[in-house]
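> forwarded from #structure-qc
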């Protein structure tokens, strides 16, 4: 009788495993396990050469666009800062001219400006007795870079005491607002 029960358990076990194999259960489990390991190994391999080359190409294109735009921005900022450096002298220039005349205006120091600033390698001042002064206050750009060699901007004074800004040696895209 004991043999009968052992055979019966063995038959049931074989039948169960046959059904699992028939359904592909065990096989699928083995395949899934192997597939998951292969996928993990593949994920750990890193980037392919073509992926790295694409990333480098994208960075190169962005740099080719961004660097000239940044240099233009810096140049325009330098011109605007140079204008700000000399614009501060207009009020003192007017006071000296109206109170003491053109002879009182002898240098940038006489109107409260430094001869040199971070943006201007030289600031010069000119005054005429009739009040008309082309290049009344002139800034030669320090390290002009993309602005161009010998670039300068100046404030010209007319007989009515009005100032106009003019530039020389730069492209129109670098000129500060209000300068011609």
């Amino acid at each position: 009788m004991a043999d009968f029960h052992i055979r019966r358990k063995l038959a049931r076990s074989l039948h169960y495993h046959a059904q699992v194999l028939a359904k592909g259960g065990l096989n699928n489990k083995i395949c899934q396990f192997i597939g998951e390991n292969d996928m993990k190994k593949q994920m750990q391999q890193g980037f392919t050469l073509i992926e790295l080359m694409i990333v480098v190409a994208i960075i190169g294109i962005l740099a080719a666009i961004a660097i000239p735009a940044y240099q233009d921005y810096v140049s325009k900022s330098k011109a605007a800062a140079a204008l700000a450096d000399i614009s501060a002298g207009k009020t003192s220039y007017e006071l000296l001219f109206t109170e003491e005349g053109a002879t009182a205006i002898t240098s940038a120091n006489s109107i409260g400006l430094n001869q040199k600033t971070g943006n201007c390698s030289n600031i010069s001042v000119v005054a005429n007795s009739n009040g008309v002064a082309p290049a009344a206050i002139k800034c030669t750009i320090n390290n002009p870079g993309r602005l161009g060699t010998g670039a300068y901007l100046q404030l010209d004074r007319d007989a009515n005491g009005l100032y106009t800004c003019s530039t020389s040696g730069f492209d129109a895209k670098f000129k500060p607002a209000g300068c011609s």
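QC bot note: The beta strands are 120-125, 133-141, 152-157, 163-168. Helices lie at 2-23, 25-43, 49-87, 90-100.
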